Amino acid sequence: MATSLVFGFHAVDAVLRERPGDIHSLHVLAKRSDKRIEKVVAKASGRNIPVEKLDRAALDQMVRGGRHQGVIARVEESARVEASSLAGIIEASEQPLILVLDGIQDPHNLGACLRTADAAGVDAVVIPKRNAAGVTPTVRRIAAGAAESVPVIAVSNIARTLEEMGQAGVWMTGTDDDADSTLYDVELTGPTAIVFGAEENGMRSLTRQHCDRVVSIPMAGAVESLNVSVAAGVVLYEVVRQRRRKKR
User: Fold this and answer.
1) What angle separates helix 35-46 from helix 9-18, to the nearest 10 degrees?
2) Which domain holds residue 224?
3) Residue 137 half-sphere exposure, CB side, CA atoms within 13 Å?
4) Does residue 125 share a domain with residue 236?
5) Is the confidence at residue 82, as pLDDT, over 80?
């Protein structure tokens, strides 16, 4: 089985917490002995994970310029959740909330979206298998552990996946700067999938066709649009707000 590197304290700590059995080894900076790194080493040792102390040059070479913070884990590169599990995730939740990212290219944007998804209680994040950013070490670092706590499901066909979610009772809400309805005009308390397109071109036409409704975020200033990760936060927390209000 192939392995990949996870580095940075938040990402490594999340893997130790969520997937300790998938960690092959932990590599730490030999000259660093503060409480933060001691805690990570203790967790790894407690799970019988081999720990190797290396100098900074060796760690830098492993990640080739990545910001490792003195801690790197070599992890089994298995898909955390299979595409076939999406139906089970939806069925298991009383009010499933799915984030669909149709073609995000920038790993930093994907990582930020995962972090926001975790904070907002998203049940799963759906991304394409091809022509989009995947869950790379950079994404894991930016996500600060969310890449391990939120199921990320890579699918071959976004449109087909949206259709299948619709058949399972999930309402698809797409986002577009030119939509007639705003985010605040729609009900988001039921089973919901929020759909975002790529940074530059937005949702593809076929993706849009599978949305039950398309909304915009009201913009009052000179800026025409928000960064996709910021927009995801705005929309997801409107879902959170509406659902909490309904419970009162």
Assistant:
1) 20
2) 83-247
3) 21
4) yes
5) no
Cβ 120 vs Cβ 237: under 8 Å: yes
| CATH number of domain containing 112 | 3.40.1280.10
Residue 62 sits in the same domain as residue 95: no
Same domain flag for 71 and 90: no
On whether both 34 and 120 belong to a single domain, the answer is no
Q: What is the pTM assigned to this prediction?
A: 0.79
Band of the pLDDT at 79, cuts 50, 70, 90? very low
20-45 burial: b if 16+ Cβ within 10 Å, else e: bebbeebbbbeeeeeeebeebbebbe
Dihedral sign computed on CA atoms, order 168, 170, 171, 177: negative
- Angstrom CA distances, 37 to 12, 47, 138, 185, stand at 11, 16, 20, 48
Give the pair of three-digit tokens for residue 195.
């759909």
The arithmetic mean of pLDDT across residues 101-127, rounded, is: 95
Together in a domain, 204 and 228: yes
pLDDT in tens, 173-183: 999 988 989 99
For residues 150 and 185, state if they share a domain: yes
Q: Is the pLDDT of residue 42 over 50?
A: yes
Q: Scanning the structure block, which residue is given the tokens 């913070």?
A: 69
E-only strand ranges, the chain: 3-7, 23-29, 51-54, 71-76, 97-101, 124-128, 152-155, 171-175, 181-182, 192-196, 213-216
Q: Two tokens at 163? A: 């259709």
pLDDT tens-digit map of 198-213: 988 889 999 999 999 9
Separation of alpha carbons 113 and 122, rounded Å? 11
| Residue 37 and residue 111 in one domain | no
